[in-house]
Structures are given as C-alpha cells and as structure tokens.
Amino acid sequence: AQSVAQPEDQVNVAEGNPLTVKCTYSVSGNPYLFWYVQYPNRGLQFLLKYITGDNLVKGSYGFEAEFNKSQTSFHLKKPSALVSDSALYFCAVRDMRSGGYQKVTFGTGTKLQVIP
Amino acid sequence: SQTIHQWPATLVQPVGSPLSLECTVEGTSNPNLYWYRQAAGRGLQLLFYSVGIGQISSEVPQNLSASRPQDRQFILSSKKLLLSDSGFYLCAWSREQGAREQYFGPGTRLTVT
Hints:
The complex is a heterodimer. Chain A is built from no helices and twelve strands. Chain A is mainly β. In chain A, strands 2, 5, 6, 10, 11 and 12 form a six-stranded mixed sheet that branches. A four-stranded antiparallel sheet of chain A has the order 3-9-8-7, with no helix packed on it. In chain A, strand 5 (31-38) and strand 6 form a beta hairpin. Chain A is globular and about 45 Å long. The N and C termini of chain A lie far apart (41 Å). Chain B is mostly beta strands. Chain B contains no helices and eleven strands. Chain B has strands at residues 3-7, 10-13, 19-26, 32-38, 44-52, 55-58, 65-70, 73-78, 87-94, 103-104, 108-112. In chain B, strands 2, 4, 5, 6, 9, 10 and 11 form a seven-stranded mixed sheet that branches. In chain B, strand 5 and strand 6 form a beta hairpin. In chain B, 35% of the residues are buried. Classes of the chains: A mainly beta, B mainly beta.
C-alpha cells in the first residue's frame, strides 16, 4: 500500500522568507510525486511533478521541490514567500509500475500562512 | 488547451432528494476522469474513477453513483441524499498515459439540509 504524510498541519512564514512544506511518501516501486495548491473554495491546481532525472523539480509560481530517495521525501520550497502564496498545499504519490490502473494517494494537506 | 467544467457551483438540497452533478472536459481525448469529495476543506476522498466510456470504478461503498455516457462527460448521482453527503465535490481529469497528473475543476459545494 502506498501512503503520503504531510507532518505539518500549518506552516507560518514571514513574507520574503524562504518556505518549506514537508512531504514524505511510501510506495512499493518507484514514485511519481506531485504537488498541488488549493485556494479557498476552488479546485486544486497542479504545481509540479517528479518523474525521474534531476532531484530538483521546478514548477509554477516560483515553486520547486526536492526529491530525496533515501529519505523518501519530496519537500516543496520557494526562496521568497509572497502573501498570495497563502493556501492549502497537497502532496501526492503514484506508483510508477505500468500495467493496470495505479491510484494516486493524496496527503492531508498543509495550510501555508504567509505573514505580511 | 484543456479545460474542465463543473456545474452547478453551489447546491442546497433537502435530505431524500436526488442529485446530479456534471463534469465535462474539453481539449483532450480518452481522459481518465475522477470524482472526489473534500470534507471540512481538507482531505480528499476518491469516490469514483473512469478510464473509458461506461467504465466506472468505485472506491468506497456509499450513497452515490457515477456514470460516463460520453468520452469527456462524467456525472455523479444519488437517488436520495443523506446529510452526510454534504461537502465539496471535485471532478478531475488526467491523461491516460505518463505521470497522469490531475487537473481539477472548480468544484461544487453541496449542502444537504
């Protein structure tokens, strides 16, 4: 069985400071990893994904994520936080095995609050 | 480019009434389609997914059903709503190959009274 853990229910960061939202995963094979953002009363928006290759993945709105296989982590980062980054962030994982349907598992979400 | 539509945006229905939520995708063919429910603004619960017309898989037993009458149309239904059906319903699509990142619709806020 696969799983995703987002250990922080909420992260507070001052505007202009770097931010990190943590995610760890468990999957049988190699993972596809994803980050999504959700603004209030809106659907989730896809930010970035890790497939293979470079461990540092760049995505939308200046976000990036670092894949660490030994620590089974995929933390979301941004060098300088904006107030408009305040939202709910979801990490997700899917097993890379081919053949049949492989379900995506979402984390429980981390609320990011950027303080002016 | 691809777009995904959901309607209605909000819905207030009495207990015991029927439900029909519709989702359509434009700009792609043979998408995988998904229905999720999000309670209390947090965790996502996968309700149904579909890999093709008429092919529906249910993730959890519940008061809801889904249908896919056309390639890019996904419908969530109930014959009799329960109070516990209240929530934020999200439709999503992904390509059938590759990493299959999902693209979500704007959601439907359902309140059962």
